[in-house]
Predict the structure of 7-carboxy-7-deazaguanine synthase.
Amino acid sequence: MRLAVTEPGAPEIFHSLQGEGVSAGKPSVFVRLSQCNLHCVWCDTAYTWNFQGTEFHHRDDTPGAPRKYDRAQETVDRSVEELTEHLLALPCRRIIFTGGEPLLQQRELGELIQRLKEADPSFYIEIETNGTISPVGLAADLIDQFNVSPKLAHSGNDTAIRHKLETLRFYANDPRANFKIVVESPPDLEEVKSLVVETEMPLSRVWLMPEGRSTQELQQREQWLADACLKEGYNFTGRLHIHLYGDTRGT
Ligand code: SF4
């Protein structure tokens, strides 16, 4: 499987508190897989996809100097067997596969989850996904929780690639799935409402989260977004890890 790294050769696997959404505050082991099928301009893990030789734009670009990452330095491969051994040796049984987009590697992911659960049925497995890919096979059956984060227009992705309505309806129908939607400014709330209605997401499983990679950016958006959540019936989530650790890898 292809993973992101904290430093060349070291897979980004770390123990921390979940910072966002329904599991916020829970101690978890994060496994960050590399590669993504979307290219959000504000992505805080662009090192999983914005590699040299690509033409994707990111807000860290400066005129004449796009911010690009070296694919060979930013990725590392580990077998399902190696990852099983690594995760079994850690003290925490809540595992969150994040990315990038983890479901791009769902065949291997399913095998890994099966091995983990066979070794210790107490493993609780969460997948963070952008909601464009449906789980199949083992990945569909063995995952305990999906944290689905569909992207809005401000992400910079075309509608056709960021909104797969049938896939979002699949998640809306699955009680294991919770939705976390990143909001940048008040006009985004209209797009949220349309998406929620069109895909029949139950409001009780929808969290709105302010966009921001620093405490200052988040604080500028938290108050009006919290007010909107109260008014419209959405759940609110901040980004606990940003407040605690800043925008750093491995946290
Ligand atoms: S879907 Fe997630 S990982 Fe992919 S580009 Fe967007 S924010 Fe980054």
Remarks:
- The chain has one domain: 2-245.
- The first helix runs from residue 71 to 74.
- The longest strand covers residues 177-183.
- The radius of gyration is 18 Å.
